Amino acid sequence: MHLARLLALSVAVPALLGAQEPTTPGITLADAITKAQLAQPSVIAAQGAVERASTQYRTSWGAFIPSLSVSSSYGTSYSNGPSRVNQITGEVISGESYAQSFSNSANASLDLFTGFRRGAQMNSAKATEAAADAGLIDAQYQTALSAKQTFFGALAANELVRVREAGLKRSEEQLSVSVAKLQAGSATRSDSLRSLVTVGNSRLQLLTALTTVATTEANLGRLVGIDGRVRALADSAFLVVTEIGDTAMIRQEAEDNSPKVRAAQAQADAARANVKAAKAAWWPQLTISGRYSYNGNDSQDYQFFDARSMTLALSYPIFNGFQRDQSIVNASTNADAVAATAADARRQVGASLIARLAELDAARLQIEITGTSLVAATEDLRVNQERYRVGAATIVDVLSSQEALSQAEVDVIQARYNYLIAKAQIEALIGRPL
Q1: Residues near 22 by beta carbon (within 8 Å), at least 6 away in sequence
Q2: Which of 107, 304, 396, 427 is within CB 3.0–4.6 Å of 296 for a Cys-Cys bond?
Q3: Considering the domain boundaries, does residue 127 fall inside one?
Q4: Three-class SS of residue 380?
């Protein structure tokens, strides 16, 4: 009965393996990052913010240019009244009248002095543009980080499937050995039953690994904007462990040039400029404007007469219900909050970088340790299998060695994954590849 179930599982599991691989498209890491940056809403929103900030900056310096408008109009009028007689000539004059008129004008105005408001608004717009540029870089690197995490997760899941397949093969081979020894009378029935349980556990682990592959590949497809599963393609470069250089210089670079820090600092600069713009309300406003027009109608045989005017206006609100004070307080408190946020962003980046560097160093050591453990576990299993064949070891020794080898293989995959993720997180923090 147990063997029948085992045979049924041996048919089901390969069927799952064969169903998912041929139809799953593959993608490289570089393509995954590129496609993710084109598909993710965060990057598209950041690009929109850059465009809006650029338009805002153009509008701010446009305030120094005179505004100009032109207009033209045409009108007709008709009236109907009683006829009358000219008392001198005796001519009968009709009561109907019809007239046409034309009017054209041009208007221009320029703010001569705004209490330094225009300059402050330009500085604010420039800082906002810098913040948007830094925000776009940060969004791109954060998306790249998400792409790498998802990509490496899918890659690790596929490697784990191969580990589980190898573990299943070893457990099935051990089951065959146990059954053969039982038939030869050199082993107990318990050995075969323990081996059978191990085979079942190995199959369950393989099924779990296959489910994880489906999940990670589906997530990778969503991230890169493709419906369905996408398979991560391995690269030998992922196995290379490199040095990143002077960590002190990297920390300083992160605190000075991290996209998050640059965006936060630019927002603080914009907030300070907004305070100056709010204080401009305490200054008088000086504006010059001019108008030129010419008009004509059919009653004057369409002779056009022009008119010119120029106005120099000075305005100063003496009291406006404390609205100026309210605007200044709002801008000042907001500037203080944004400045504190910028300082905290710098500290946060520094703290995150320290943690990521520690994780990177730990991952390097994990790769070395797990590599050594894998070699030792492989040899340990070989020795115990030979000892079991000659009756010098128990089935428990062999199964324990098999479990230790499977865990060592999993640890190797996890160590490499940890290293790649820690490196990607550092790149996202400093805003450049290592």
Answers
A1: none
A2: 304
A3: yes
A4: helix
Banded pLDDT at 179 (limits 50, 70, 90): confident
Judged against a pLDDT cut of 80, whether residue 388 lies above it is answered with yes
- Three-state DSSP at 292 gives strand
- What is the distance between the alpha carbons of residues 287 and 293, in angstroms, rounded to a whole number? 20
Q: What is the rounded distance in angstroms from the CA atom of residue 260 to the CA atom of residue 136? A: 10
Are β-strands 305-315 and 67-79 bridged in parallel, bridged antiparallel, or unpaired?
unpaired
108-126 tens-digit pLDDT:
999 988 888 888 888 889 9
- Spatial distance between the Cα atoms of 401 and 378, rounded to a whole number of angstroms: 8
Q: Do residues 121 and 59 make contact, with C-beta atoms less than 8 angstroms apart? A: no
* C-alpha–C-alpha distance, residues 105 and 301, integer Å: 20
Tokens of 373: 């453990």
Examine residue 206 and state whether it is found in any structural domain, yes or no. Answer: yes
For the chain, what is the domain count? 1
208: Cα within 13 Å, side-chain hemisphere: 10
N- to C-terminal Cα distance for the chain? 57
Cα–Cα distance, 153 to 420 (Å, whole number) = 10
84 falls within a domain? no
Residue 21 has pLDDT above 70, yes or no: no
Query: What are 37's two structure tokens?
Result: 């940056």
Which residue bears the tokens 């391995």?
234
Distances (CA, A) of 296 to 107, 125, 179, 307: 19, 46, 115, 12
Helix (H) or strand (E) holding 305, with range, is: strand 305-315
**pLDDT greater than 80 at residue 325:** yes
The reply to whether 27 falls in a domain is: yes
- Tokens standing for residue 368: 């070395």
- DSSP bridge pairs for 100: 76
Residue 248: CATH number of its domain: 1.20.1600.10
> What does 55-115 look like in DSSP terms, one character per residue?
HHHHHHHHTTSPEEEEEEEEEEEEE----EE-TTT-PEEPS-EEEEEEEEEEEEEEEEE-T
